# Entry
Amino acid sequence: MTAGGFGQLRATDADRESVRVILEEAHAEGRLTWEEFDARATALESARTYDQLAELTRDLPRQAAGAPLAVRQGLPAAPRGTNALAIASLACGVSQLLFSPLTGIPAVVLGHMARGQIRRTGEDGAGMALVGLVLGYSGLAAAVIVASVVVMLGLWIFH
# Structure
């Protein structure tokens, strides 16, 4: 395997985009003729592995195009952050015990919003959002049950 040991691994769209930028810069700097640029850009459309990407830029100054983006920049893979709405959902769910069952409403709303964002962005925090949802729904259900019992007792006592 070449290209930093990634060889036959499938490249991402971000990696292909990075190679496209390198090719455009090389063409703008006069390192590639239009015909060379066009041929490599056409080959880029069908490139699937890091080896194939590396081959397109092997003779250009930025050699590391055949490795994942973070590795090319000498960085560890970027850690995914924890979704802020998931944290807020969990906090609202837990705060029901201290403050009011009404904080279950924002726990549920924020939990659903967080799960949607997490699916789109790949952030961490799915477990927190789920726990916030469970606590929120549980707290609301408990509040409804308690309110129903109080109403039933009131009707029974004053009837």
